[in-house]
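Incident log, entry 3
Record: Co-activator of prophage gene expression IbrB (112 residues)
Problem: checksum mismatch between cached and fresh output.
Input:
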Amino acid sequence: MTRARIEAINAFRQVLHHYSPFRSQPVDCVLWVKQELVAPNDYNPNNVAPPEKRLLQTSLEADGFTQPVVVIQQRPQAYTIVDGFHRHELACSKAALKKNAKRLFAGDLPDE
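Fresh output:
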């Protein structure tokens, strides 16, 4: 049931995006992608100090994902993180966040 609902939400967003006056903006069509299809990039330049990482974890646990993990589709069923590496890393490694993320992340619309 959940998978069908998510697919319906993504389809609806794609239709809205087609007619949107903001369709040229990347954030106009945020879609849900399964977490297991998302891989970290190999060029992440950011280092987060332990205190800031704990703050990020606390924020994610308290408020959920207030910003998406942005991905780019590399091939069918394979996405690479463009932004949000540390959010993704915490969501994959912390039990409380795994539950909140429900194994789904926001991603971008592939060109068709």
